[in-house]
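Appendix B, Record 12. Input sequence as logged:
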Amino acid sequence: MNHFSLAGRVAMITGCNKGLGQGLAVALAEAGADIVGVNRSAAAETRSRIEALGRRYIAVEAELGHAAPSEIVDQALSQAGRLDILVNNAGTIRRAPALEFSEADWDAVIDVNLKAAFFLSQAVARHLVARKAPGRIVNVASVLSFQGGVRVPSYTASKSGLLGLTRLLANEWAPYGITVNAIAPGYMATDNTQALSEDPIRSAEILGRIPTGRWGTPEDLAGAIIFLCSDAAAYVNGHALTVDGGWLAR
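Logged structural output:
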């Protein structure tokens, strides 16, 4: 028996048109899952990579923070028939000193990173409970779920809140066979961190603290997401698995 196989399961993942989300979606497909991708626009490259693995890719176009989560899940179910896994990956960030941070930037980040993640989780969990089926929910948190950072007040608040929410949902939904965990990536090479990686001073500061000496990649998250979504993690609940090259250990 392969405890890491996801064959026969359907995983919905938000924000998988590129970057970390695409890496997570491809990893789940490699483990055998069909994928429902929730994105603001078409994710042609992601679709191509998943279908090349012989898995189904179902697209749901929606803008998190505006579209109703229940409608997103209804669209997914109408095409996929069922959902077994939810990965709340989509996220956004705004950078400014806390003394100057605007309410608009606060709301934009909280609505996507925290509010949408909760209500999508709620909608998927309702589906699982109605089916009397076990399920896996994985939230993409951050090392800033544990640290403060600088110049990203709403991002830090959202990712800290997401970790707390992960623990609360794990407590409430365990009796239904639903586990809720988080992956906390460190400094990864994505669009969100491009400004940092291109700043020679900040990039050097960051790399100087990472024991492995490099920025992370989407592929670095593959093992973590497959594990948390698989039967191998059936007794792992309310946990945040850091994938940070040793950043927090420094």
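The mean pLDDT is 97.
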